Amino acid sequence: MRGTIDGVGLDDPETTVFERFGSVERDGRYSAPVEPRNAGRPVYGPGTVDGPRRGGQGGALLRYSDGVFASDARRRVYYMLFTSRGLKTSRGVGIGNRLAKVKSVYGDIARCGRRNVDSGYTAYEFCRVRLSATRWLWFGGDPVRSVALSTVAMG
Length: 155
What we know:
The chain is mostly beta strands. The chain is built from two helices and nine strands; from the N terminus they run ββαβββαββββ. It has a seven-stranded antiparallel sheet, covered by helices on one side. It has a two-stranded antiparallel ribbon with strand order 1-2. A hairpin with an 8-residue loop joins strand 6 (110-115) and strand 7.
């Protein structure tokens, strides 16, 4: 269960990201795409992403127009979030689908809820799916506006 976006997968080195998406200035401030094509619309990513438990500090956020990659101290990808239209998982769920489809396709392993309730930020619905001990999926918004894949819990 590897999971890739445009040829970049979890645990790949940062150099693979650069080969596929070009170089980027490292940015540790925001975990959302730089200027998503759906600019002006919220991304609805996970509020928190556990840092990797290996390699300590020193990773980077690599932000692109439709996505972001996070790397750990070993400079390996442990998180990626994308907003690209047409993006789908291997089970056919993706950007533009309703969360009802996430629940239908992933069944009992889909945990859904609302984020930012009473926080002052825009509240939104989400589903997260634990595929294995080291593979997590996130679907943000209803309809889905972002899909994230990570080696660590998102929430």
